[in-house]
Amino acid sequence: MLLNPWIYDFSAYNLWIKPLGLYYLATYLRKNGHKVSLIDCLEMDSSNANSAKAFPKTKMFGEGKFYAEEIAKPKCLEGVPKKYKRYGLPLCLLEKKLQCIEEPDFIFITSMMTYWYPGVWDAIKVLKNFFPQSTIVLGGIYATLCYEHSQNSGADIVVAGAVEDSFRYIQENILECPVKYLPNKEEPDNLPYPAFELASRTDYVPILAGRGCPFRCSYCASQILNSQFFRRTPTKVLDEIEFYLEKFGTRNFVFYDDALLYDSKGFFLPFAKMVLQRKMAINFHSPNGLHLSEINSDVAEMLFAAGFKTIRFGLETSNPQRQKESGGKVVNEQFVTAMKMLHEAGYTQEDIGVYILCGLPEQGVKEVEETIAFVQKNRAKAILAEFSPIPHTRLWKEALSHSEYDLAKEPLFQNNTLLPCASTEMRESLQRLKTISRQTPE
After folding, report:
1. Are 98 and 246 in a shared domain?
2. Is residue 198 within 8 Å of residue 23, measured between CB atoms?
């Protein structure tokens, strides 16, 4: 059995979240002869509804609010003046689903944000109560970035790294079975499709055109989770999309890529042209952020023509020195040119979302104010993203030295709600900055 656990946090929103790694793992296990079931605690569908619960409705493209219930805060977060919640299936409905499953030999549970680990730990407790004889294996982002800490999760085995990298070990050493099929992420065109037939909702489907990122931004964990950059050919990606369109009637596709537009002539432009040639009436979304340096008139026009409805970009800051220090993926001149071309292609200010980091070590309030003004001046929507320090990134050591919290010992302190590396002035100014970012200049 595979399980995606709850989110425990002060806030959470479903920006097309699906545990893609679990769905790939399900396929790999099946190809090696195993019987597989899957439960996603964050997936809400009509079969979950009952008279006692009111579930939030999703928006037009499939995103929306999670069902949430207030729970007790962890002791170290008791001073935070916000409600702490469990996002996802109510416990009673998870238990109902578990009652319908034959006790599995093995349970694989994934993990996402490092500071969401309490939801992982609680899910493991529930699973051990239901299936005391099952071996529980924990993997995912938290298990990879906080490997030592995750040893205390209650899982019997913890596996770090991408599922393709660890699958031989899983098959031979955990499941103790010979390998019949071995995935190779260095040959991404040959990977089978993830097992989305196990999902209870397919109104949107995540897509990976490539793994990893050629950039090495100081605040990002992409290079840690995927040390190399691999990409599929445009035809193979579009064939997968067409498969889901025909099989499930899916119309919304969400790119989880960290570098979708990189080398646009080699991938994106051929891909978009094929979308138009096949006359596919579908919508695309890119919540992870696109690289502004890749935007030219051709790319902007094809984004609009091919049906990219949700476009997000990572500017992070308009401060030239910090841009250079953090990785140099974009400069202000490129941003200005990109915004002009996107508007000429047909996008409006409300369509173009630009992420701005706030709460970075030694970042002043004025820098964030100036970045917001810069984004709005160029007719884009500013989206504040509170900085969350991530273990093993280039910025990690600096984050440790600029935080009052013990970030290394307690992952809960990595929660961006705390603004753990920010100055007092930044914390006191956050709500004002958020208000400014939502304004539309005349």
Report:
1. no
2. yes
